[in-house]
Amino acid sequence: MTEQRPAGTGGDSTPDGYQPPSYIPPQGSDIPAPPLYTPPLYTPPGEQYGGQYGGPYSQPGGPYTQPASPYGQPGQYGSPYGQPSYYGMAAAPKNLSIASMCCGIAVFVGFGVFLLPQLAAVVLGHMALRREPSGRGFAIAGLVMGYIGIALTVLVIVVFALLMAGLASSSYSTF
Fold first, then answer.
1. Domain with 102 in it
2. Residue range 14-53, pLDDT digits in tens
3. Where are any strands of DSSP class E within the chain?
4. Considering 5, 12, 86, 122, which has the largest number of Cβ atoms within 10 A of its Cβ?
């Protein structure tokens, strides 16, 4: 049924693949470890010839320079690796504002016949002004285009109704 192993290692039967390796490398090594960090040997341009203003006989500080800080100067943004240690805050969402502006654009592209994009642009624009202060420009653009679209749609409907009434009255008066 099952294979019995010899009890040479304390009586434990270890499954295949879980035995310790037959060769264990020695713990100590004759090769020394590499150094952790060696600063680069870099001299800024101008410093190699005795500083920015003058030669080796110039004064170390001018009369208007600040005294050296006893605590040292921190690195750029507080990170020793030259990269900023912060990434700023995430951008505030502008979903409603962008949707309002897209609906406002859709009014003038040709989808404003049904009055739905105009109303959506106005409603989303007002919601965005209350909820998303970072998307104020997009929201105002959507509101302006939505209100202009509503005004144009109402104007077209009134002109169409007057035209139809004028045509209807002129065609009956000729009889």
1. 95-170
2. 777 777 767 766 666 677 777 777 766 766 665 555 555 5
3. none
4. 122
